[in-house]
Records
---
Amino acid sequence: MTERQSPVSLVTGGGGFLGLAIVRGLLRQNKPVRSFSRKNHPELERLGVEQITGDLRDPESLIQACRNADRVFHTAAKAGVWGDYQDYYETNCLGTENVISACRRCRVSLLIHTSSPSVVFTGKDMEGSDESAPYPARFLSHYPETKAMAEQAVIQAARDLRTMVLRPHLIWGPGDPHLTPRILARAKRLKRVGNGRNRVDVTYIDNAAHAHLLAAERLAQNPDLSGRVYFISQGEPVLLWNMIDRILKAGGLPPVRGAISHPAARGIGTILEWVYRTFRIRSEPIMTRFVADELASSHWFDINAAKRDLGYAPQVSIEEGLEKLADYLKRGKQ
């Protein structure tokens, strides 16, 4: 008689920024972990994590990854503000539907899905909005549009599968492959967009991972939480351009000099979007309407639901996180 294997926690995108942080958190809890990514990652190999390579668009590879899994953390997605709609749709929408199908096929107990607050971003100030905020009538970027579709599929799947959706806002910290490198790379030509008084939420990477682990535990304990959505952040809105200056300082660079009005930035974005689409330029424009709106408006959210239902509270402060980031950058890892 063969011994039955212990169930594992599957992390899609386990080699990514958030995925790796979740993997490390699960390992600290002494839980068996498996990663599903498009390629093998040396860091996961060093941690002794089982890796399965495949594509979210391939249902069979996801079924293989979900076998013997009791919970799935779905962090893998196509991010960014520019690109072909079909690429975003296939990865974020069809990919998530394939994850849901694989969970059902393999009788996975629960699914924690990583979404984004951008799914409700209207381009206008959003100050203290909660989870009742509706999706906008029109999206200005393929990423939030397809992520909104994906989270709707996860919510609807709660009919026969325990699911939960988390919306962490602007994840940053050591190893960040998106926000920090973009700020540092554009330091010399960055200009403040708008009046500089707009406040936003940010989320240190360890806090984002902590929220996902809490979500899985609370959902396992309380099926009534299935199908719910939660904003995640530091719970401490910051001035966006002050935060950008602090990240620049952590990288040993001077603060942003100069400014441009929101309407001017939006106008530039409109022109560049037309040029890039007309001439089929695949690289990302330096400005788009969506980016102009994000850089000039306030967008921070009420996290009381996550505090109440998940017991969530940030474990790492912004100040401590900036110290860790500065140390990381000094070591030349970015």
---
Amino acid sequence: MKKHTLGSALLASTFLSAGLASAQDVTLTIESWRNDDLLIWQDQIIPAFEAAHPGIKLQFTPSAPAEYNAVLNSKLDAGSAGDLITCRPFDASLALYEAGQLADLSDLDGMSNFSDVAKSGWSTDDGSATFCVPMASVIHGFIYNAEAFEELGIEEPKTVDEFFSVLNTIKEDGTYIPMAMGTNDQWEAATMGYNNIGPNYWKGEEGRLALISGEQKLTDEAWVAPYEQLARWADYLGDGFEAQTYPDSQNLFTLGRAAIYPAGSWEIAGFNTQADFEMGAFPPPVPNEGDECYISDHTDIALGMNAATENPEAAKTFLNWVGSPEFAEMYSNALPGFFSLSSHEISLEDPLAQEFVSWRSECNSTIRSTYQILSRGTPNLENDTWNASAQVIRGAESPADAGARLQEGLASWYEPQQ
């Protein structure tokens, strides 16, 4: 009888201990569109976090990128979405916050590690609430074939005049196409063209915010001048650039046929694999010697908390860790060209990625001019900027006419510009 009682007590104790252990273990599920990041999360991020935070487990469950918005919205509406939500920048995530599906994270301790520019992609229009912790941005500039530069005796240009002098030297030599970019797909003419060089003219955040407030117009010199520079690019893009697609441009550069590539830093990993020559990078040249420089350091990805999560404290623990220097360095090194948006000093192993991120200490950061607020109406300013940039480079529209067309379209629906 005593043995039976003791056995029962031991069995009950075993079940009780197991119950306590399971009660302490919390599993957080992360929704994302970055299915190409799966191994990075499984092999690096999750083990590092779990080692430092016993009792909290992570599951990274990505969807196909093109299906993410629809899948996520369905899950949120059904109450089956994960605890943590990977956030695209601006309106898509803002809509989730306004619907009460993303929690306000303004008071999260880790948010103090991010600037207003870094948080802009995941904040309300008035900046009073931030609902996702910024993870990474992409930076714009120019990647070049360092061996071609050495062969031709040219150096990285600092000013616009030096930039065109370099292009002329490359063109006159004839060995390389000076610059690899086409206008067939249009978006790259705006993204790697207009919004790459433009911040040096409209002074980054100063001009972008002035456009939102209505204090500046797209017909102002600061907004037309980048088109005047783009119009000069046509002479250096090679024969048939009008029909050249984005993959065509990538191939021209990585095969060594073009010397310069107007770039987003997301190209770094692919170019490292495909190009068999040494590469360098320089930021957008300033209009005049001594001018302050500005870079497009564009918000790309963040992480928010499902407002309906049953594990808010564990989720906040993870989100604070996402704001830490450990995560910043790990993520930026795992994905060269996607840079942590935190204020922490980090060391990058990839030399090209380190070059891009070093510009933050030399230049003022801003985001693409059309992405916040200004593309909510019809006509869509972002799509119109794609078309205008391509048209100007082709010579089918003058810089002044492009500015006037864009201004007319924006003013037709956006009250501060009326």
---
Amino acid sequence: MFLYNVTVGVDKAIEQEWIAWVKETYIPAVLETQHFSNAKLYRVVTHDDEHSVSYSLQFFANQIESVVKYLDEHTGTIIESHRIRFKDRHVVFNTLLEEVI
């Protein structure tokens, strides 16, 4: 199992708008590509900042090829739509993890 983790720091002023958009648009669009079997959204509770809050978007795939194919085929659409919509109001850090146990 592979976990494609997208950690996003969002300005607190747009937090609720961002959450709604991620739940209603972003996650369904990613899952619709059929490269991932499941998705989860977590708030990072160890992050303490006056102006921003962090979230972890987690997408699960059975094969690393699914993640690579998603990144190759959908960066220009799904990921870019996030960048455009929340330009200068967020930062993103991506990690790919492999389950070992």
---
Amino acid sequence: MIKLGVALTAATAAILVAEFFRHRTRPFPLYGWMGLAALVGFEWLMFRHVEPVATYFTPLAWSCYILVADAAVFAINGKSRLQQAPMQFARIALLSLPLWLMFEAYNLRLQNWAYIGLPKFWLARYFGYAWSFMTITPAIFVTTDLIRAFNWFPPAAPVKFSLHVHRALIVSGALLLILPLTLPREIAAYLFALVWLGFVLLLDPANYRLRLPSLLGDLELGRRDRVYALLISGWVCGILWEFWNNWAAAKWVYIFPMFQQWKIFEMPAPGFLGFPPFALECFAMYVAAARLLGWLKPRA
């Protein structure tokens, strides 16, 4: 179903571009044009199997995308992460690597995906891993910034959850994360969806209780924009991950034991449902990790 995947990717990109032009207030920055030109060039080289672009296409494409998306945010808001907080953005990229490795650790047991076409030389291989993984959280966050810049989600009625609900969410999240590690592997292989939900349920209530940025805190203030923008960002990044991965020389393939006959690009179609909650997890995990490192302070 590659044609369907291309159509979904094109429709997603078309909506983003149309909304960008509708909300733009200033010229598109030079670094955005440079990122766009580089992305087109890397695409051309990748389809012609020119090395090392074909092998390193995933981190190259995502590095360019981050520049383009951040420039689009700046052209709308007059500020962006790379322009106003480059050091914080570097920290996000740095933390993205160990945070994603937590999912890789789960995959060692659950065996839901594998990598093919990787360089044989270990240094080249692990360089590609690290670079690729360091683009994951920045891509989610800058796409979230872009969606929020469109002002799609006005304030709504506040929603406050009790301490008992917070505790239930934390316990539920812990159980979702423990079950795939304790059940027999032949059963656990079907349960990676629990991991895509577990971290946000475990960490977001804890972040709220520690007076850190949280999705529950946003809902309590009547703000829906970050929650919804993260969910949409998960879809946008998910479809782009699979689109660009499909033709790269070094890529991932999915080997989990179901829905293999319903693939869109390399991803079995139901797997796309995991990308929106994954974006919520990226946010909750980054906040918790940044607090542990002293990069985030509780609000007064």
